[in-house]
Amino acid sequence: MRLRALTLALVLALLPSLAGSVAQAQNKFRLKPGAAGKVCLDCHTEFGDKLKRKFVHTPVKTGDCAGCHSPHTSDHGKLLAASPAAICLNCHPGVVPKKAISAHKVAVEGNCVKCHDPHASNNKANLLKVGNDLCVSCHKTIGDEIAKVKFKHLPVSNDCLSCHNPHGSDKAAHLLKKPVPGLCVECHKAETARFAGQHVNYPVAKANCASCHNPHGSNTAGILFDTIHPPVANKRCTQCHNAAASPEPFATRRSGFELCRGCHSTMVNEAFGKRRVHWPLVEKKGCLSCHEAHASRQKKLLNVPQAALCGRCHQDTADNQARLADREKQEQPTSKARVVKGSLTHAPVRDGTCTACHAPHASDSARLMRTASVVDGCGMCHDWLKHTSHPMGEKYVDIRRKNLSVNCLSCHRSHGTGNRYMLTFASATELCVQCHKQLRK
How far apart are alpha carbons 106 and 83 in whole angstroms? Predict the structure, then answer.
């Protein structure tokens, strides 16, 4: 009993000093009363209007400006006490799930102010804009697509957050709240007769809805992607798949290109009649290496835009083009040379139209070129071949490599070199004297 009384007396004695320590820690700048917030308004008068807004950030409402800003000096803009991300995470930890499958870039980078006003707003959660207007201010391409499509998807029209988490998702890609089709069947009840009829009685409740439908809306009924494989458009699923009532309804009747040969026999037969066949065609997945089976937002049912599609395998070329494009943007004119748009990068490669020069399926020419010779290939776009050029063709031997004839690639590189006009040397003079040695100075 005496020990308890002694302990209690000791605690009571220490309480004033502990309280003082806590108060000092909370007021580390030893500011006078009101100086942490109210005094700020004497100079920052515009905040008087902000305080009238519907939603005011708690530190601002309580007059604790020094909770986020340093009153004296700072290594960060706007006298912030730390980086914006660090400040927000002090009070809002775990914005992005720890085991996120997908995360919003601005949240990962700590750019919270891209979406939220740190002081006050008339929108919930201090958002800068309300509803979809905020999302499409960054995702402009998707916003334009949604605005133009003929057939709208109701959840998209209502709110992007119907399907997406704004910070990150530990459930699915693309910030989705649930993986597809689990997310879709919350609204589209797969057990109804109407749903079954629309899908020719195939058990699609566990299938990938986004293989046929554009979740943001489209110009095709049923919000199908605008490029539709004819068997899908005509609901002739059994052309490729087993019957809906079979034990394996989604299994295909044949594998690889053999499945596609039934309808595309001319193309397949022509491809295999060439000397060189593009390897994805004969790979296990066959045509599906590059094309979608049901529908696509791309022409020719491509999986993704052509540049990205070719870049999956030819990443070195894609990366080099990106570097050259960045360098071209930074070029400045000099007293000896002017900036020439497209002089470092080849337009078809830069624009992602690889098939302007290469055949996607097969060819009799090296590198799957569309034409029999390099000279003919370049001549499809460069009409100077019709009036004047360096002598080229089979009868002109490259004196540096006796086994080769002179063609466009004797001096240029089709995917770019980093030199003007894609030359193999930094200047025309330096290039020419490689063969015309008598002209060297």
Answer: 14
Region class of 241: left (phi > 0), else alpha (psi between -120 and 50), else beta: beta
Can you tell me which residue has the tokens 């804009």?
A: 129
What is the DSSP secondary structure assignment for residue 218, as one 8-state letter? Answer: B
Distance CA 234, CA 228 (A): 10
Q: Is 178 helix (H, G, I), strand (E, B) or coil?
A: coil
List all residues 6 or more positions away from 371 whose beta carbon is below 8 Å from its beta carbon: 365, 377, 380
Q: Which of 184, 212, 186 is nearest to 199 (CA)?
A: 212
How many Å apart are CA 63 and CA 86, to the nearest integer? 20
Q: What is the chain's Cα-based Rg?
A: 33
Note whether 175 and 166 are within 8 A (CB).
yes
Supply the DSSP string of 20-76, one letter for each residue.
Answer: HHHHHHHTTT-PPTTTTTTTHHHH-TTHHHHTTSSEE-HHHHTT-GGGTB-SS--SS
Secondary structure of residue 220 in the 3-state scheme: coil
Burial class (CB in 10 A: 0-12, 13-18, 19+), 296: buried
**Which residue, 352, 345, 396, is CA-closest to 374?**
396
Give the least confident one: 4-13, 104-113, 307-316, 377-386: 4-13
Output the six-digit token pair for 126.
């201090």
pLDDT digits (tens, 9 = 90+) for 120-171: 999 999 999 998 999 999 999 999 999 999 999 999 999 999 999 999 999 9
Contacts of 392 (CB under 8 A, 6+ apart): 375, 405, 406, 407, 408, 410
CA distance 245 to 202: 8
This prediction has a pTM of 0.76
Beta strands in 243-401 (DSSP E): 276-277, 295-296, 362-363, 393-397
In sequence order, which ranges of 337-422 are alpha helices (DSSP H)?
347-350, 374-379
Q: Any idea where the domains of the chain sit in the sequence? A: 27-135
